[in-house]
Amino acid sequence: MAGRRSRKPRPPLDPARLDELALAYVGRFSTTRSKLRSYLARKVRERGWEGEREVDLEAVAERLARLGYVDDAAYALSKSRGLTARGYGLRRVNQSLRAAGVGEEEAAPAFELAQEESVESALRFARKRRIGPFGDGSGDRSASDRALAAMVRAGHSFRLAKAIIGLPPGSDIDLEMLRETG
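Predicted structure:
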């Protein structure tokens, strides 16, 4: 392979380099303590460890959380806002936060927000997909079933999805009725 330089192997990590990696990561990405620990564990696996003591990823993540660089509750709330704004429901928010390693206590405000926004979020999803009152009315039974499945996969309750899909195209939307349904 003429003209290609071989890369010099990266040096093993030590506590100072690990801190630099952690700070660079939290500087670039909104993250949780769990995601930060996973990232750092991967870097230690890839590059090795040269520190005098055994690596303590939990301590690094907790220190950055104490300093305010990592905030699981703020991450959860931001993720919840983003997902509901895109039309996803409570179950999808819950899945996303669990995957990010957010604890129940930190996730509680995010779940409350997703619950409060559930009807509006489901309507956003329906508008985007042209379902129910936003459709053209030419849908048959199988199209209705596919729309219902899509809404449920997006994290909306079966009852709320069925109520929205059952609305005729162009009809007025009764938010109170949908809130009682959902």
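Summary: The chain has a mean pLDDT of 92.
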